[in-house]
Design goal:
The chain has about 120 residues and is mainly alpha-helical. It has 5 helices and 3 strands; from the N terminus they run H-H-E-H-H-E-E-H. A 3-stranded antiparallel β-sheet has the order 1-3-2. It comes from Nocardioides cavernae.
Length: about 120
């Protein structure tokens, strides 16, 4: 990953680290919502919801457009897929390392796996 990709991943995981933002993302992935309508769904101020929406927008997980006086928010499915791809790549890396450790332990006649299993799949 280059520096730009790392910055984008930081923004994704920062945005997704908050329960309210994950809930907002679920709602806007299901369909476009006005920020005002979203704000009515939470026990917090409109300004606080706007800040959550702004974090999601900066991370590229949500887009906003104006319709009259309303700001309408939609989830960006491609960005969410990119997060999933990144997590899948990390899982593959982890599984590869575990597999190599299993092979190493299996080839070591001194290693007894009956008392301390290392297979973590």
């Amino acid at each position: 990953m280059n520096e730009k990709d790392e910055d984008r991943a930081d923004a994704w995981f920062h945005a997704l680290s908050d329960r309210t933002r994950r809930d907002i993302l679920r709602r806007v992935l299901a369909g476009e919502h006005s920020v005002s309508a979203l704000a009515r769904s939470y026990d917090m101020s409109f300004a606080a919801v706007q800040k959550h929406v702004a974090v999601l927008e900066r991370a590229g997980l949500l887009t906003k457009r104006r319709q009259g006086r309303e700001a309408l928010a939609s989830g960006d499915v491609e960005a969410v897929r990119a997060v999933g791809v990144m997590l899948t790549d990390l899982e593959a890396l982890w599984r590869g390392r575990i597999s190599r450790m299993d092979e190493l332990f299996a080839s070591d006649p001194q290693h007894d796996t009956t008392d301390n299993p290392t297979h973590l799949t």
